[in-house]
Design goal:
The complex is a heterodimer of chains A (about 375) and B (about 230).
Chain A: H1 3-20, H2 24-42, E1 53-58, H3 59-63, E2 76-84, H4 94-106, H5 109-114, E3 115-117, E4 122-125, E5 132-141, E6 158-161, E7 168-171, H6 173-183, H7 185-199, H8 214-229, H9 240-250, H10 257-267, E8 273-275, E9 278-280, E10 282-283, E11 286-290, H11 294-297, H12 299-320, H13 325-336, H14 338-348, H15 351-354, E12 363-365
Parallel strand pairs in A: 2-5
Antiparallel strand pairs in A: 1-2, 3-4, 4-5, 5-6, 6-7, 8-9, 10-11
Chain B: H1 3-21, E1 25-31, E2 34-47, E3 50-61, E4 72-75, H2 100-109, H3 113-134, H4 145-157, H5 162-174, H6 196-203, H7 208-222
The chains are: A alpha+beta (about 375), B alpha+beta (about 230).
Chain lengths: ~375, ~230
Amino acid sequence: MSTQVLAASNQLLEVLGEQLDITDSQHEAAKSHYKAVGAWLNQEDSEIAKYNPIIFPQGSFRLGTVVRPIGDVDEYDVDLVCELQALNQRAVTPLQLKELVGKRLRENKKYDAMLEPLNRCWRLNYADGARFHMDILPAVPDLTVAPTPAPSKSFGPISIPDRSLNDWYYSNPTAFAEWFKERMKVQLFAAREKLAKSLREHVEDIPEYRVRTPLQRAVQLLKRHRDVVFQNLPDERPSSILITTLAARSYGNQVSIVEALQTIVRDMALHIETQGGVYWVPNPVNSKENFVDRWQSKPKLREAFLSWLDRARGEFSSAVLQESTGSMVKSFAASLGEGSVKVAAAKAFSADELQARPSSTPRIVITEPSKPHAA
Amino acid sequence: MTENDVCLDIIHAQFNELVEHYQGLSLHEDQPGRWIVRGDLTFRAEYNGVEMAGTFSVLITLPDDYPASPPKICETGEQIPREADFHVYPTTGNFCLGAQIEVRRKFAQNPDLLHFVKDQVVHFLYALVYRSWFGKMPWGELSHSGKGILEYYNELFHVSGHKPTLHLLLALHDRVFHRTWMCPCGSGRKLRKCHGPQLKELVAHCTPEDVLSDMKTILDYVSPKNTNADARQP
């Protein structure tokens, strides 16, 4: 890959990443919205205030790997946990827990108007042009795990209602986020330092969400590619947590997005283990949890994942390696959605640069290749 | 016109044809009588529906007896590590495009620079770029040293184990194949109905010394003293 091509693809992918990302102001808005929800749950007249509720972000919003949905009307998904810290799974059923939180939300006229019940959580549909909705997942501390001496009072392992509200499901979004951050800490610090310099501020004053590492960008691009590929096959769609975990495991502190992406798609599949004949991608903070447990009963999901990965390798490699900026943009638009890529391209390049020059390089179709040998 | 002039004309004509397709390259007389082609080689190629492209700074050296022997090529931009794992000879930096006899055989089909680049070099670079994205070679690779040579001949002759290959190579070295002899591969068929035609074709692409050297390498690999001969077969 020549250095110019590498630089141009990096430039495009960086702007495209910003394009997929939630903006700083959306981030701030989401934060103040969920803090307000937290205050409402904790207010004196609140029935559940005695359970000491707290609200904190989880998932892509927390990890900095949010991806704007395909299409302009769709909204960002902000995932929150509402943990009733002074309650536990012996004192409440999953169904009761969900109702406790739902009841308090309904008591607020504003929230009642935008509340939508989902399988195991509550969705708040903000209509103030914020372009996002918040999914609030009720939780209680997980008592089956010995409490860790966490610096903050909670943010440890939690129990959440499973899909059917029949049982508990165990999770630890905080520990996962810490693990993810650890995987990219070198570049995270570098990115904050760079921004601090340009703003003449102290590194410590740059919040982590204001910067994105090559790992975060690569995860966003892979998730967007997945969204495009599985647009009409939602049942076979690889999960975000699976992509995020395998990507973070493969990331080797590469400085450029292209190199991060290249390494990640090359190595992702190497981190799929087998345990006693069962495919296994352990949750890095809970080795008992298998992110691909459904592959056992539905082998089609594994095939779908592997063929998606192969397609991602092929499409990213060929897009990045296009000779002219114009053809590179075209190639990315086909794999990542025309809308966002065109907007990103217009921001990243001048009209002149976008002219797709006819390539002079002959394109060869390889037949009968020889196997290279090493002496 | 001397023989040298004829050769020079061929080189110029071949280079002009090459540079029409690969514009980043230029021809130089490095030392009196030694011709090289160097510059940026940009390629685009597709194999099994997957397209790869790339630009590498390369140096192609034409041997004294060119075009009787194929050129050698190495990379000058330090994009490819000088390691046997990357199919580059660590000492010279030259690409190991394939088994030596295979490189000569392919080159002999179209002994010119354009075909050398298109049919061998681009394939090689494609495979390396592919590997950087997919983590594996697109069409496989030969093992290192003797094991790889044996794998190559076994595939070429469609035989398994080292004995049939060594017998066939011995015949190739001696260069006498009587049509009615039994084939040295041990198939029990007459040479003309078995490996005869293939051996006759190969004679043009290797000297008895080349064959002897490959036989020695294979023998070293399969010898009981070589504890690395993990794939040794009876």
